[in-house]
Specification:
By secondary structure, the protein is an all-alpha fold. The protein has one domain (about 30-120). The chain is about 70% helix and about 0% strand. The protein has helices at about 5-20, 35-50, 55-65, 70-80, 90-100, 100-120. The longest helix is centred in the last third of the chain and has 22 residues, at about 100-120. The N and C termini lie far apart (about 85 Å). The mean pLDDT is about 85.
Length: about 120
């Protein structure tokens, strides 16, 4: 039994590494959020702050940040049930927004801004 030459094995291994290097990479979206998307996120942030849930919401969003795509897929699955209580158009837009990695960061920033605005008006 003859062994393959070392160079051939190294080349095959290098080609395999190159092929799977970005297998699980998530490309960021280069499209900016539309005005309607920002208005929806602002409405969500204002609702969270109005209920006094800014700290738990921020902690939850920061802890599940890497899993936002899975959350968006779960929202797509649960939409038929959730549309009994929520606007189905908004649910679909939220699910589509959660597929983008920067949406969670933007929502946290909007919650912080709404909290700061509330704190300034109450002083």
């Amino acid at each position: 039994m003859t062994l393959p030459p070392k160079e051939g094995f190294r080349d095959a291994l290098a080609a395999l590494k190159e092929g799977v290097r970005h297998a699980f990479a998530v490309r960021p979206s280069h499209d900016p959020l539309s005005a309607d998307d920002l208005a929806l996120l602002t409405r969500i942030a204002d609702s969270v702050v109005r209920r006094g849930m800014e700290t738990p919401a921020t902690v939850a969003l920061e802890s599940i940040g890497p899993l936002n795509f899975l959350g968006s897929q779960a929202l797509h699955v649960l939409t038929p049930f959730l549309e009994l209580a929520f606007n189905p158009v908004d649910l679909e837009r939220i699910a589509a927004l959660l597929e983008r990695r920067e949406t969670v960061i933007r929502l946290i920033a909007l919650i912080d801004a709404a909290t700061a605005a509330r704190d300034v008006t109450t002083q």
